[in-house]
Amino acid sequence: MAINWQESQIVYQIFVDRFKRGKNFEKKVKEGLYSRDGGIIRNWDEMPRRESHGLEFFGGDLDGIIDSLDYVKSLGVNVIYLTPIFLASTNHKYDTHNFVVDPQFGDENTLAKLFEESHKREIRVILDGVFNHVGVDSVWFNKSKKYGNGGAYNDPNSPYRDFFEFRKWPDDFRAWLDIKLLPELNLENEELKHILFTGEDSVVKRYLMIGADGWRLDCAHDLGHKINSLIVESAKSVKSDSFVVGEVSGYPDEWLRSLDGVMNYYFSTLLLNTINGNFTVSTLKHGLDRMVEESGEKLCKSWNMISSHDTPRMNSLIKDRVFKKMAIAFQIAYPGNPFLYYGEENGMYGDGDPDNRRPMIWDQGRWDWEFREFVIKAFEIRRREKALNGGKYLKIDFQNPFIAGFGRYTRDPKDTLFFFANFSDSKVIEKAPIPFAYFMHHVRLEKIFGEGEAISRVSEIDFELPPKSFAIFKFAPNFSLYRMYKSV
Fold first, then answer.
1. Alpha-carbon torsion, ordered 206, 210, 211, 215, to 10 deg
2. Residue in 61, 218, 260, 385 annotated catalytic
């Protein structure tokens, strides 16, 4: 089975300002790059502060990421997703001024080097495309006249006037979530679409040609199907295997019609609420089965979320260490691509924004080494097992209401895997009928991850799981000459 890279991603999200300082940090401080809009520099070991309103900087940049690529590779990661890198006032850069690399992070040559060095290590890089809105001080809007006297806010005859929607000029304009610092773009404007998406030197195409491998679309649900489809079409016109994933807070099915994949927040909602006792295990199982049935094969290209820069960290969301490991196991076993927020592998904590954006901990003495090794092992299994990389999904029913699980398979019966999870505080002994035509009966089942034991019988698996545990089992035939399904 040929593996599509979009179905075999192990994604590592980096919040650029908080990952690692590069060689030019002190020089940039002296040049005033961080103080240009009233920003302040923090020491690396300080905690982010809400009252800074996004104007505190820790100095992480593209050079720092380049210096850390071997570290990222050592985790088994093959995709890096960067939060926005374009010119903006804040540390998070979701308030774009202009679609050029922010000098705080480097320049276009640094970015090209990041792409080159990543690709040498077989790591792809996804950029964050913030196309729904810009900052109030952007070149096009320019409320504070940072870029001269023009701009849509200052001049009713500005060439950028129709890039925005005014109910009453200049102060009554459409903004994201009605936040007036983030005026929304009028993406029905043909010139704007040309600049951002369709032109030969458009933002989407230009950075793919420089070396990016795809785009994560911020607020893809706000962009809508028409614009999402246009971006996908534009991206693939210059790089046929480019990947466009959308930030979608709702159910994936409809959005997978216009995108290559989604950030699967529905997955995290089901899993986290079950772990924390808000949903029953049967609700989780039904939700996972239903999502595969209704969303189709594109679910395999989506990102299985637990936490990100927009949520509390995994270690704050899941208090029980055993369930934290189970969550990672669900990420690698369920259709979709596992997604890890920087530092989670080492046990970093963080509540809501901005606490979840603490600087990366590089002091190995503060790492959770046992959990780190567990994550690396999980990712190794995900890379190795063909059924987990775009394989089909097998729905399995259980009698015990505290068990969830499913199968994954390819056209080769020997690739078949079974994932079972026990959410109860007691050991479970379960018989599960397996509705699979190429089930290998009377064959040893090998446990390749987790805890527990299982036996293959005729169209049935008998298994035992300890309290609060999971296991992944795989057929392990050990006949000398006999081969089951030899003509399949």
1. -20
2. 218
Q: What pLDDT shows up at residue 1?
A: 47
DSSP 387: G
Rounded Cα distance between 34 and 31, Å, is 8
477: number of Cβ within 10 Å: 15
Residue among 488, 430, 431, 486 nearest 459 (CA): 431
Burial degree of 242 (CB within 10 A; 0-12, 13-18, 19+): buried
- pTM value is 0.97
Q: % helix / strand / coil in the chain, to the nearest 5? A: 35, 20, 45
Say what the alpha-carbon torsion angle 56, 59, 65, 66 is, to the nearest 10 degrees.
150
Exposed / middle / buried, residue 177 (Cβ in 10 Å: 0-12, 13-18, 19+): exposed
Rounded-to-integer distance, Cα 461 and Cα 433, Å: 7
* CA separation for the pair 451, 66 (Å, rounded): 38
* Nearest in space to 415 (alpha carbons), one of 480, 329, 485, 479: 485
Is residue 284 a contact partner of residue 241, using CB atoms and an 8 Å limit?
no
Question: Tokens 């009252």 correspond to what residue?
Answer: 51
CB-CB contact of 255 with 246 (8 Å): yes
Q: Where are the beta strands (DSSP E) in 296-362?
A: 303-304, 337-341
Residue 199's CB: how many other CB atoms inside 10 A?
15
Confirm whether 218 is a catalytic residue. yes
Which of these is catalytic: 102, 137, 184, 247? 247
Using alpha carbons, select from 4, 50, 9 the residue that is nearest to residue 356. 50
Q: Give CA–CA dist 324/307, Å, rounded.
A: 12
Active site residue 397: no
Mean pLDDT by 10 residues, the chain (488 residues): 85 98 98 97 96 96 98 98 98 98 98 98 98 98 97 97 98 98 98 98 98 98 98 98 97 98 98 98 98 96 98 97 98 98 98 97 98 98 98 98 98 96 98 96 92 96 98 89 78
307 three-class SS:
coil
Nearest to 294 by CA among 248, 244, 254: 254
